[in-house]
Amino acid sequence: MNTTPEPVVDDPVIDMPLPPPGTMGPPEEYGRLRAKCPLARVRLPIGATAWYATRYEDVKELVADSRLVRPSITDWPPRPGHAPGDEPGLITMMELEGPEHAALRRALSEPFSVRSIRNRLPQIRRAADRLLDPFVSGDQPGDLVVRFIEPFPVMVMCDLVGIPYEDSEYFLPKADAALGAILTLQEGREATAQLREYIVALLDRKRREPGDDMLTHLVRAREQGAVDEESAVSFGLSMLVAGYRTSTMFLADAVLTLLSRPGAYAHLRDHRQLLPGAVEELLRYIPVMNGVVVLQAVEDIELHGRTIHAGDAVLPVLASANRDGDVFADGDGLDLCRTDNPHLTFGRGAHNCIGSHLARAQMTVCLEALFDRLPELRLAEGHDPIWEDESPSKSPLTLPVNW
Ligand code: HEM
Known about the structure:
Helices cover 45% and strands 8% of the residues.
């Protein structure tokens, strides 16, 4: 927990930039901060302060810097008056470090590889069709987020990881409560304990009834001594709390982006060879990763003549790095034919996104399925999407469409 006093700095602490209301963003301040104050002090909506790094080169280095660790979402920000034992202690894969983390990454590299994900494409497409079948024949306008984009990544994740999809009614509200532990500590602690119990029981079941899934793969790795039980549990917990949310936000923003630009949806529908590049560009352009990655310094770090002290929180803003004009020509513009696209959406270094190939496959299949099943998809006139404007990273909560 952070006990280091706040460093004294010259320029004022600013409120964490938020996207303009009713939009996915990005916040308007990115450009100014990159130019004038690449390492700013920001106050987060939850009250704590952190360093906010916005330039591509800085973000690229910081996110892979071993002097920065990932504090547990229940340990940071520090809450005055809470003893360490009070915290719900939600340990996911991101908080694992050193040999345990490396062993778990090794054990999971095969099932998350490009080849394995490619072999799963038919299953991923079946999940999309299963959700779109009733949608296509339903009433218009229909809500594409609630009926398709929200459940789709959960269904895909459950199938690949080996979590019964029917159980999502049980774990989704608990995952929300665990993540909301910052607000309601008691509820968060209870939810975390229940999610843990659920994963422990599921791993046990995989021992008795093995399947063709990632948890079974981990159970075998455990039996061979390649990973320990705690690591397997933290992977399961990571999937329950983080294996689908980001995908949902990206998919909702991607579909909205295409439908809001005249001709973009139809162009991609009719030129499918552009899809791989377009998916990369959407991943770069969509600003969901606005201060989502929180790091904490374990030693002092000098940057731009300032000292990030041990204990300080650092937010490498991936979404701002992805718009940096020094790296991306017309960084704020969407160019579905962009070829050179070294975006940082999946992070970098030891903790980079292990699900990146899966996330790409989900976006590709989501768009292909929509092009095939709803070729005339369009935003429903007079029915605006609903946004939750408090959040630093945003996607529409509803997306009324006609087809
Ligand atoms: C568009 C969708 C996604 C985006 C943009 C995304 C982005 C990220 C980023 C930036 C990180 C690194 C965080 C850090 O440095 O601390 C990360 C980590 C991670 N992601 Fe993703 N992610 C996505 C989808 C997924 C999916 C579908 C899965 C799995 C089902 C997944 C599983 C993970 C895991 C387990 C980690 C932690 C890796 C580690 O600590 O070693 N992600 N993700």
